[in-house]
Amino acid sequence: MTEQAFLEFHDGNRIPQLGLGVFKTGDDIAAPTIRKAIETGYRHIDTAAMYDNEKGVGEGVRTCGLPREEIFVTTKLWNDNQGRDKTLKAFDESFKRLGLDYIDLYLIHWPAPNRGLYVETWKTLIELKAEGRVRSIGVSNFCPEHLEKIIDETGVKPVINQVELHPLFQQKKLRETHAKHGILTECWSPLGRGELLDNPAIMGVAKKHDRTAAQVIIRWHLQNGLVVIPKSSNPERIEENFNVFDFILDDSDMRAIGGLDSALGRIGPDPMTATF
Ligand code: A2P
Asked: In this predicted model, what pLDDT tens digit does every residue of 146-155 receive, in sequence order?
């Protein structure tokens, strides 16, 4: 039997700790994918304007048969819409595409420091939260210096920072900054885009528990207090990735996986230098 776990935001709202990522899930299959996930037990869907599937995601949430309040929906502002006017317009467009009464969490997708607009954009998210169509606001791919800057300039802390995080790239320094401010850490590409699934250390732990490598990696995230959003559009893997609430990794398992951390483990772009 599986049991949903939640983590508390500093603004009083809460987030289901395990969600479904839908990066690269086409708009045409998003609605049935989301209905399948919700039927499996997921209560948290993570999309973005850039994923080009908000319409299908919204349809999936509206037609899943559960009340809106039971599903947590995140979307994100794309980089070329940073700055107050563009942000307000982009939020309206995401809101309309999703077709929901409210959005649970709105994130700035990347700091894009080359654009010099993330502080102004953060101030706009603060306005949007006050207006009520979004319940919580946060950021994605922010480094400690970006976090410190928006907090210094506004006094408002994001509830969460969604970043690349998996056993090969564990982001320990960033997590210390999050802990200092009471910001939750959310992990994209938690499976290392599949690269970790045949790692010998992970496979050893998986064999010991008679689980799959993906289940062990997701369990490692949960036991580290991280919010985790594995992406899959395959029905069997959507189920597999949710069947993680009925076993526990022991200290030696956690140490074996923790030992995989590497300064060279990043798979995606570096937010300090990314210029998109
Ligand atoms: P698919 O959508 O066909 O299931 P990440 O979340 O780390 O970015 O990884 C996503 C990738 O891993 C996708 O290519 C996804 O493919 C694949 N994937 C997701 N869950 C599993 C799983 N349980 N076993 C193997 N591959 C998986």
From this structure: 999 999 999 9
